[in-house]
Amino acid sequence: MSAQMPHKSIVVQSLAQIGNCGLFLLRILAAVPSSLRHVRETVRQLWFVGAMSLTIIMTCGLFVGMVLGLQLYHVLAIFGGTSATGSVVALAIYRELGPVVTALLFAGRAGTSITAEIGLMRATDQIAAMEMMAVDPIAYVATPRFLAGVIAMPLLCCVFCAMGIFGGHLVGVSWLGIDNGTFWSNMTANVDVWDDIINGVMWKSIAFGAVVSLIAVFQGYTTPPTSEGVAYATTRTVVSSSIAILALDFVLTAFLM
Amino acid sequence: MTDTVQAKPDDRALVRIRGLTTVLSGKTVFDALDLDIPRGKVTAIMGPSGTGKTTLLKHITGQMRGDKGEVRVDGLNVPELPRDQLFGLRERIGYLFQNSALLTDFDVFENVAFPLRQHTKLPEVLIRNIVLTKLQAVGLRGAASLMPSELSGGMARRVALARAIVFDPMLILYDEPFVGLDPIALNQVLKLIRTLNDTLNITSVLVAHELAAIKEVADHVYLIANGKVVAQGDPKKIADDGSPWTRQFFGGDADGPVPFQYPAGDYARALGFKEGAA
Amino acid sequence: MSQRKSYAVGTGLFIVLGFAALAYLATQTSSVANSHQGSSYTVDAQFANIGALKERAPVKVAGVRVGQVQSITLEPGKDVADVTLSIDNKYNQIPTDSVATIYTSGLLGDQYVGLQFGGAKTYVANGGHIGLTKSSAPLEEMLGKFLGSGGAADAIGGTYSVRADFTNVGTLSVGAPVKMAGVAIGSVASIKADPVKLDATVTLSIDKKYNQIPDDSSVSIFTSGLIGSQYVAIQPGGSPNSLKDGDQLVLTQSAMQLEDLIGKFLVNGSPSGGNNAGGNGSSNTPAGKH
């Protein structure tokens, strides 16, 4: 297949890639029932893609919240509306920055490691060894990582948002001196559980988690099992995930609004 | 599994390949290959690099399918097996990969225990005993808690062997088990192959280049070239059977039936001279 | 095995942390009240115009949230909107003569339904109907009531002059239009300060066509548009006698500051009837006589 690739145009290649990716998703989903026997593996992957990403997610969430608080305070000060800082920080984080930045970080932190890991497993015949031990590698390798990504993303996104709010509070209240009560009551009054948290945070991040982990697993699974192939696939994971996240974000925002 | 495909109990060949033809990206790998692997014996498959010895093993396990022909393992025609039966068959086959293929996430113990955990619901005590028995058999019980990255090449191969025999398979396929081993490790693996074959009554198939090692361990040798079996017989005598293939292969001649030159166009023309001008 | 355990524990901690963060976001940073609550009862109200009222908009009594708008449908065959209010069971004692009004919170805020309780001793039952409603008044309409619109009189048929004293003329300038029912009927001829009464005496020169203005009419200074120029508006009274050249209009209302103006509407979320100040935009009697 790779020998024929260079002759095709980029458009045809991309379409073929998307098509293969879709078919791969079907294989992953078809393997969900049999992967239930490997719950432990899913838990283990949840540890690697989820818990291990916490540090970067929390740090970035904190700084995003802090910089938002700082920027918005000064813009809102022009209109004498600094009391709205809390609600604007919260809305910006819940509706856009939380899911999108978490997904981008997730693609960089967990997506690349999934791709590289699966690519190396193929290069060292571990996938073939599983086939030989009558273990379906899709059910054992691909599906648990995919499921772990789908589960981990919304949780990470919640942590990111909470840290962002904390960062905004830190700058807004502790540093710039917005009244603590005003900060919270304004936020509470303007943030809606269903519109902002369930639709904004949860659905988006579940969709992003599915897309990022699908791309990561797919790239790792289909790359030529060489060191060059793994390096290339890792790059592709970051590039395709980022494009997919931002494109999907637009579609979801238009759809959920 | 019906009676019609079940092997006759007295069938001496565990693996029976008939008329196997495989073409991979325009190159004919097997050309109507016929080959039998006798039960309970150590069979070696030799041949120049690139003749598809590893590919042959993959055909036996169903990882690859030929374009034509039959591959019967214990009476089952592998290319036609549905996935679940193929997986059932694979549970009875051990496969030793050239680079060991240990799961890098797990330590030695968990690597050997992996097939047991995947396919059985045995109590932990029993799994522990089975795994330690197999590790003891390959002499690595003491290394149970090491990670694969901490093992030498020879140790990794022995761990992979322990994993391959954890289900007491009827057939073990060894893909280049001697490559990259120092003489001590090579002899350890050699001894293991022979012992396992004799004590567990396993059928072994060995893909290798090292004639000296094969002379010691194998009962039967196939020499494959150009997609066919070009010579076979007792490993101690095969080198003297007089065929040009064996003479070149075991004599190690640079040129012979296996050409030194990879097939190419006219040399003079490739250099820009007119044909026959020089 | 210990390796497995640590994964499980760590992963468990991660999941707990994630859900704790979710719970925190949902309870501490957002209004749970906006979500659907278990026990509630519903009442209907019909409005001629709901403006920008949306489903899930709050329902308030005395400014306190008691429920939300459950659904908005068009009454089949009529041009009235049927609004179903889902109200917390705690507040199920709504007098039958209560008034439901659609208000706007703040200048640019969302709309909500306000209930003013009546004095009846009977209460609206679950699924019942609130009969008295006041529809949404679009901001433009509300401001328009005060402000009228521009335009100057042509004064072709000659003019006559009347005087009016104001305590404050704001930024009214000579030449500014004089309007009745929103139509320009003349212009401001002069503005002078009265040295004795310390008032501003404004002379209005009115087109002779409009010589049947009752002599008890009131006169006010308004602003056209939010930041427009000021003009003089005449609200006709009921007297049988008409204004004559040189008369003085006694009932005057001085210029209001824009802040006062907006404050009147918006602080309470709605204009109350008394603030309509005669409503020159809707009054039509004298002009129609012509």
UniProtKB/TrEMBL annotation, chain A:
<keyword id="KW-0813">Transport</keyword>
<comment type="function">
    <text>Part of the ABC transporter complex MlaFEDB, which is involved in a phospholipid transport pathway that maintains lipid asymmetry in the outer membrane by retrograde trafficking of phospholipids from the outer membrane to the inner membrane. Probably responsible for the translocation of the substrate across the membrane.</text>
</comment>
<dbReference type="InterPro" id="IPR030802">
    <property type="entry name" value="Permease_MalE"/>
</dbReference>
<feature type="transmembrane region" description="Helical">
    <location>
        <begin position="146"/>
        <end position="176"/>
    </location>
</feature>
<keyword id="KW-0812">Transmembrane</keyword>
<keyword id="KW-0997">Cell inner membrane</keyword>
<feature type="transmembrane region" description="Helical">
    <location>
        <begin position="46"/>
        <end position="68"/>
    </location>
</feature>
<keyword id="KW-0472">Membrane</keyword>
<dbReference type="Pfam" id="PF02405">
    <property type="entry name" value="MlaE"/>
</dbReference>
<feature type="transmembrane region" description="Helical">
    <location>
        <begin position="197"/>
        <end position="218"/>
    </location>
</feature>
<dbReference type="InterPro" id="IPR053408">
    <property type="entry name" value="MlaE_Permease"/>
</dbReference>
<feature type="transmembrane region" description="Helical">
    <location>
        <begin position="75"/>
        <end position="94"/>
    </location>
</feature>
<comment type="subunit">
    <text>The complex is composed of two ATP-binding proteins (MlaF), two transmembrane proteins (MlaE), two cytoplasmic solute-binding proteins (MlaB) and six periplasmic solute-binding proteins (MlaD).</text>
</comment>
<comment type="similarity">
    <text>Belongs to the MlaE permease family.</text>
</comment>
<protein>
    <recommendedName>
        <fullName>Intermembrane phospholipid transport system permease protein MlaE</fullName>
    </recommendedName>
</protein>
Automatic annotation (TrEMBL), chain B:
<keyword id="KW-0067">ATP-binding</keyword>
<dbReference type="InterPro" id="IPR003593">
    <property type="entry name" value="AAA+_ATPase"/>
</dbReference>
<dbReference type="InterPro" id="IPR017871">
    <property type="entry name" value="ABC_transporter-like_CS"/>
</dbReference>
<dbReference type="InterPro" id="IPR027417">
    <property type="entry name" value="P-loop_NTPase"/>
</dbReference>
<keyword id="KW-0547">Nucleotide-binding</keyword>
<keyword id="KW-0813">Transport</keyword>
<dbReference type="GO" id="GO:0005524">
    <property type="term" value="F:ATP binding"/>
</dbReference>
<dbReference type="Pfam" id="PF00005">
    <property type="entry name" value="ABC_tran"/>
</dbReference>
<feature type="domain" description="ABC transporter">
    <location>
        <begin position="15"/>
        <end position="251"/>
    </location>
</feature>
<dbReference type="InterPro" id="IPR003439">
    <property type="entry name" value="ABC_transporter-like_ATP-bd"/>
</dbReference>
<protein>
    <submittedName>
        <fullName>ATP-binding cassette domain-containing protein</fullName>
    </submittedName>
</protein>
TrEMBL record, chain C:
<keyword id="KW-0812">Transmembrane</keyword>
<protein>
    <submittedName>
        <fullName>Outer membrane lipid asymmetry maintenance protein MlaD</fullName>
    </submittedName>
</protein>
<dbReference type="InterPro" id="IPR003399">
    <property type="entry name" value="Mce/MlaD"/>
</dbReference>
<feature type="domain" description="Mce/MlaD">
    <location>
        <begin position="159"/>
        <end position="237"/>
    </location>
</feature>
<dbReference type="Pfam" id="PF02470">
    <property type="entry name" value="MlaD"/>
</dbReference>
<dbReference type="InterPro" id="IPR052336">
    <property type="entry name" value="MlaD_Phospholipid_Transporter"/>
</dbReference>
<feature type="transmembrane region" description="Helical">
    <location>
        <begin position="7"/>
        <end position="26"/>
    </location>
</feature>
<keyword id="KW-0472">Membrane</keyword>
<keyword id="KW-1133">Transmembrane helix</keyword>
<dbReference type="InterPro" id="IPR030970">
    <property type="entry name" value="ABC_MlaD"/>
</dbReference>
<feature type="domain" description="Mce/MlaD">
    <location>
        <begin position="40"/>
        <end position="118"/>
    </location>
</feature>
